[in-house]
Amino acid sequence: MSKLPADFYQKVYALVRTIPKGRVTSYGAIAKAIGSPQSSRTVGYAMNASHQQEDVPAHRVVNRNGVLTGKHHFSGTHAMQQLLEAEGIEIKDDQIQNFKKHFWEPEIQKA
DNA sequence: ATAATGACTCCCC
DNA sequence: GGGGGAGCCATTA
Predict the structure, then answer these.
(1) pTM for this one?
(2) Which of A6, A31, A46, A95 is 20 to 30 A from residue A24's alpha carbon, by CA?
């Protein structure tokens, strides 16, 4: 792994870990929370690596539309959906119902 | 150091 | 409302 820039991942992991159960957030929100609102793409990239972590509920992270875009990267096809449903979140066709209601905005972390 | 990739987001048609 | 293209950032080859 890199030496310094990896700090970005740490921020993402820490923030995703703070996501309350039964709540979801978007990559852009996380990116913004860590101080890089335009690094939404990198956030998703970090999530890919987050799979190595066990305390990082990546299933609570979806795109700004509330769609489980990354479900394909999970263990199974519906693993992500099932996990979210288990937390009380209703999902239909990979789309979180009441996403706005379940949406959880992370706190802005200063550099 | 340059080029290519990616779990995103925004703008335009 | 739906589809396509460009932009940005960090990592990897």
Answers:
(1) 0.90
(2) A6
